[in-house]
Amino acid sequence: MKHFVRTAVLALAATGASLSATGAEEWRLNNFLPETRPESAQIEQFADEVNAVLAGKDFTLTVYSGGSLGLKNTDLLRVIPTGAVEMSLMWSNYLGRDAPALGSVFVQGAISTVEELKAVLPEVQKIYAEEYDEWGVSTVGYVAIPTLSVSVFCRDEPINTLEKLKNVKLRVWAREQVETFTKLGVAAQIVPQEELYVALKTGVVDCALYPALYAHTISLQEVTSYASFIYPMASAPYTLAVADERWDSTDEEIKAAITKAAQDLWDRTNQYDKDLELELQAREKLVEAGITWGDDFPEADRQQFLEAVSATWQMLAEEAGGNALEYRERVLKALGR
């Protein structure tokens, strides 16, 4: 297993007892997504199903959403093997500091259709399981993310061209987006979603990339006035992870209940037929809340973006080294490219 920093997280592990006052075993599931996200409702249902099956087993799985356990997304590869939390949601795009190869698996913006997404997901899941295993982390399930329409939300003025975007400070959420927009001459910086509201309100950034589908979950309509669609995006799935040592020593009945509920969770979320309908409904609600929805970015701008994404994908794989180039080739092969 790769080396990781144990200071601080070991102290946190010591405070997180896995036995309740009654002696029953309690597993905490760290969910960094806000409670208002649709995925959070699915994760709660997953936990409810596990608990229902194990009702007579003195075992409880409890979901802690919105980062309420105080664990940073970027630290999870270091935290989970220590036992600081029993189970956690993980997203590969947040883990590039410790596992750079993960960033070359599924670069956001490079895959934009449901057909491409379905073609690549089985191979991506294999790669994630392999990579997390190197860190002493077992992959026990996945949560699919809807295909999304990414828009530019701005505070002071409507922006729907790359040329205008060059004149503002843009918030993004992943390094590949920073690299891609830098190639396009746009000043982009990462701002975590839990800090985005304040960053827009105080002018740290002028605009933000965000899916309209989720904008209400962080009240973007309160700190921005304009929005325009810029590109479609299929995302890598979230992973449900447990430390190898814990998973290996877990009672087989508990493992079976978790595995079955996780498969049902995947089957429920790995559906994309209503994504466009939900996107349009979300835009309507944002307009009702005061957002002025502008014209889409022109097709020529979106083509420039795709070309920049492709160059970024290649650059990140070469920079990461190790397994990164192999991962990229496996994904491209699955895509038929």
Write the layout of secondary structure elements.
Elements: H1 9-15, E1 25-30, H2 38-53, E2 59-64, H3 76-79, E3 87-90, H4 114-133, E4 137-143, E5 148-154, H5 162-165, E6 169-172, H6 175-183, E7 187-190, H7 193-202, E8 207-211, H8 212-215, E9 226-233, E10 238-243, H9 244-249, H10 252-269, H11 275-288, E11 292-293, H12 299-320, H13 324-335
Parallel strand pairs: 1-2, 1-3, 6-7, 6-8, 9-11
Antiparallel strand pairs: 3-10, 4-10, 5-8, 5-9
Architecture overview:
The chain is globular. A six-stranded mixed β-sheet has the order 7-6-8-5-9-11, sandwiched between helices. Strands 2-1-3-10-4 form a five-stranded mixed β-sheet, sandwiched between helices. Helix 2 (38-53) links the parallel strand 1 (25-30) and strand 2 (59-64). Helix 12 (299-320) crosses helix 13 (324-335). It has helices spanning 9-15, 38-53, 76-79, 114-133, 162-165, 175-183, 193-202, 212-215, 244-249, 252-269, 275-288, 299-320, 324-335, and strands at 25-30, 59-64, 87-90, 137-143, 148-154, 169-172, 187-190, 207-211, 226-233, 238-243, 292-293. 43% of the residues lie in helices and 18% in strands.
